[in-house]
Specification:
5 strands; single chain
Length: 205
């Protein structure tokens, strides 16, 4: 492809890290070309029509599904994870961690933003640190505190959050995050909560 032509003898514009790039800095034309090339490659290897058909067999989010996609479409596990997040109907995110730090994060459009920035440590209370994981086997799915990963708004009911971990080679791992939708409050629950807030702020508790 044109953007892989050497800009100097023996040197290429494309680096190995560019193969994982799906966003570009504003105004960076080289990064933009890499992003376009990676998206094109993903469409060729995992055609949306075939991918939707494969995803139809998956129900509850599970990292085992990512492994199946990687095998059936002959792509890397991270490429499969990106596609899984994009096409799964539920609100999910997959964090890629390396040596205990967040490296990349892929989330569905409806999933809350992940508060752990790239380069930050994986939260200490995360299932990732449980130490009971076995390589090449996805962990059981477990509940965790939602404020470890997502922004929990004050005075709003926090969603339940579930984690699953899959260890990759060389100190890397995938962490699946699935926030549950917050159930609608009944009129009686809202009335009681508003009354409690009024008493709290007026000092009448």
């Amino acid at each position: 492809m044109a953007h892989h032509v050497p800009d100097q003898p023996g040197r290429f514009l494309c680096k190995s890290s560019d193969l994982l790039r799906f966003t570009a800095k504003a105004g960076d034309q080289r990064q933009l070309r890499e992003v376009e090339a990676n998206r094109f490659a993903a469409l060729v290897l995992m055609h949306p029509h075939l991918l939707r058909a494969a995803m139809a067999a998956f129900r509850e989010p599970d990292l085992q599904h990512v492994l199946v996609l990687a095998r059936d479409f002959a792509v890397g596990k991270e490429a499969a994870a990106r596609a899984y997040v994009q096409y799964h109907p539920e609100r999910i995110a997959i964090v890629v961690a390396g040596n205990g730090r967040v490296q990349r994060c892929y989330r569905s459009l409806s999933c809350p933003a992940i508060v752990c920035a790239v380069g930050s440590p994986v939260p200490e209370q995360s299932l990732y640190h449980s130490g009971s994981h076995r390589p090449s086997i996805a962990s059981d799915i477990g509940a965790c505190s939602p404020d470890l990963w997502i922004d929990v708004k004050r005075d709003l009911r926090a969603p339940a959050l579930y984690e699953q971990v899959y260890l990759l080679p060389n100190g890397f791992a995938m962490i699946l995050l699935r926030p549950e939708p917050v159930p609608e409050e009944s009129a009686e629950e809202r009335r009681l909560e508003e009354g409690w807030r009024h008493r709290f702020h007026s000092g009448r508790l």
